[in-house]
Amino acid sequence: MKENLRQVRERVGEGGGKGVRMAGSGSERVAVELCKGINGLDKVVLRGPRGSSAEVYLYGGHVTSWRNDNGEELLFVSSKAIFKPPKAIRGGIPICFPQFGSHGSLEQHGFARNKFWSIDSDPPPFPTNSKSFIDLILKPSEEDMQKWPHSYEFRLRVALGPGGDLMLTSRVRNTNADGKPFTFAFAYHTYFSVSDISEVRVEGLETLDYLDNLQNKERFTEQGDALTFESEVDKIYLSTPTKIAILDHEKKRTFVLRKDGIPDAVVWNPWDKKAKTMADFGDDEYMHMLCVEAAAVEKPITLKPGEEWKGRLELSAVPSSYCSGQLDPQKVLQSS
Ligand code: TA6
Known about the structure:
By secondary structure, this protein is mainly beta.
């Protein structure tokens, strides 16, 4: 691990071992900083040119913070989150791989979020317009192979775009030497910070079919207008559009989720009763979060040896004075 950090410092060419300076900015802000987070866990801080930032822990390859140019936190992390392996961090963007949910031979949502990732000091060439990104990699140990007998390379790039957008790219390659394919499910289990769940609308999932986790995964069809929230929700929407909008009325903010290679979307809020059963989640925190998760669940992904799957997620936060009609979610969803 230390070897990785040293290699990365050499690669990014920063002075003083703290990170790489912004090209030509002359500012003290460094674009990529390797440091210690909660409980001494290693984390990487990404900084954009106008004040935006993101943080990703090597534990779980887990994004735990995404702030806009004003320093406002856009992701939800529970005040009771346990930053201590083997428990997954409650909030941010947990990586669910190679399983989604609890039906399967592995722990709920698979093991990727419970493992230490390494910094990929020799990533294959992968173009980006971001000056602030980090490449992480997860490969199975011998012990891991006992639980899930497949060899893979999971490369995760976390990047801050010039405008403060947060971009996650997952690339999973089957490196089995025995010629065997493998199949996996996946999700970016994103927790958005919202001012009041009762004043949030989600646009882009109307009229779609979904599996309701609260009704034995039975299949239903969503009603014709925006989703609103008055009770626990746990739905897997199938074959969803590239773009989904999450409107926070009080904050006059719209999150736009753009995804590629990831067909489904999970919408989850535990509401009050379930919130009380979660030790790493405050009783009232359900009011200030909503999970909208780009996911591949209905049709898990199968890779033959040598094949690679890529799943991209791009998050942006745009001002929206929805009540004045300034932002028409349909326009946002149809814009490029
Ligand atoms: O994404 C929704 C969900 O599958 C819910 O069923 C709930 O279990 C949630 O994930 C949180 O799961 P976790 O294992 O992180 O507590």
